[in-house]
Amino acid sequence: xxxxxxxxxxxxxxxxxxxxNTQKENQTKLYQCKGFTDDQYYAGLDxxxxxxxxxxxxxxxxxxxxxxxxxxxxxxxxxxxxxxSLEERRFSGTHQTLQLIYSLNSKGKIDSLVSLNxxxxxxxxxxxxxxxxxxxxxxxxxxKSGGQWISNGVTSYEYDVAGNISKIDGSxxxxxxTYDATRPNLLAPIFPYxxxxxxxxxxxxxxxxxxMGPFLHTYSVxxxxxxxxxxxxxxxxxxxxxxxxxx
Length: 247
Prior knowledge:
mainly beta, Porin, 2 domains, 16-stranded antiparallel barrel, 1 helix, 16 strands, disordered N terminus
């Protein structure tokens, strides 16, 4: 009787876990962007420049293809080699322009990134460091030159009390961000394992080179809180960049 009871409890727990996982997968898919259109408007020319990007997912809801519809040969292709390894290949025309291998840590976050040349040799490495709250706070880059690995700068991240990225400093650029605490960020990541924030961006300001900004973000959302559009505009200008999402 105890064995039967244990099996019964185990089945209940398994069913509950399976139900929770299914609900989580369905929730992720519900907020998963299937494509987006970027509209860059230049008031001085009174011209719009549109680019549409489509996304393809596997049965597990993971991104496997990001493709520029203006030129279908320009694309990012993702292959999930194992639970802790991901390969990204970028193409322009008929040529592969970049091959990246991501390694993940035990918490499913990027631990390192290796760039390979056409012969499969490593030419660049990035290492990712996290704080005790699992926030990414430092990316260190190393390039191979003359057979030696040389440090080629770092990118640092700062956060506000809510866990939003407040500043990114790296590659000669410093950008500061503020957020709208009334607008939760429900959009699933477009690029695999990219850093997301709890709330939507309210403003971003380019501190260096510059300063330039702040750029104000305005949103339209549907009845379940999904972002339909995000428009970024410098207050003193009529130029804007707008992204419209498809689900």
